[in-house]
Amino acid sequence: MTIVEDRPQQAMFATARKAMIDSQLRTSGVNAEFVLQRMNAVAREDFVPEAAKSVAYMDRSIALEGKGFLAAPTVQGMMLQEAVPTQDDTVLLVDGGSGYMAELLRPLVGSLEVMSAEDAAAKKSRKGDVTLLIVDGAVEELPEGLTRCLADNGRIITGLLSNGITRLAAGRRVSGTVSLVPLMDIGMPVLPEFAVKKGWSF
Predict the structure, then answer these.
(1) How far apart are CA 25 and CA 17, in angstroms?
(2) Which string of DSSP letters, residue by residue, matches 91-131?
(3) Most CB atoms closer than 10 Å: which of 5, 30, 36, 108?
(4) pLDDT tens readout for residues 65-103
C-alpha cells in the first residue's frame, strides 16, 4: 500500500527533474551529457528537509536543517561541467552541507574524499595528491592549508565572494601557486567558514 501511495509523488519528482534539466540546465548552457545524466539520476529531494522536498527542483538554494545549504541546480550543474571529472582524478570535495555534490561526483572519479567546510577552513590539509578540488559554495579566501592538497597542475572549482557578489571560478596549482579566474557572476550559498578575518580599524 505504501508503494502505491508513493507512486504519484515519485512521478511528480521525476517530472520536476526533467523540467530542471530542460528548463534550467540546458537553457543556462549546461549541456555536458555526463552532467545531465548524473543530475537526472540523483534525487535532489533526498538531500533537503522534508518541508523543502516540494521545492527541491526550483532554481534556488535551499537552507538545510541546522546549517548549510543545497545550492541551486544551475550552480551545481555549472560547477560539475567546469570540473570535467574523470576516472583518473583524485578528488577532494569541500561539502556545502547537503551531500548532493558528492553523490553526483562519486561514480565519475577514481577516488573521492569529502571534507566539511569547518575542517577545510581549519587548514586540516592532506598530502598534495589531489588532482581536482571542488568547493561547494562561495568563499572569501582559500586557506593555504587547503590549496596545498593539490598536486602540481591540479584543478580547482569554487565560488568566490567579493564585495557581496558571488562568482563561479576555476583555476590550477602551478609551481606551488594557485591562480583563480572568475568565470561568471552567479548566486550561490556563501560558506562563512572561509570569511576573511576583519582587523582593527580606527
Answers:
(1) 11
(2) EEEEE-SSSHHHHHHGGGSSEEEEEEHHHHHTT----S-EE
(3) 30
(4) 878 999 999 999 999 999 999 999 999 999 999 999 999
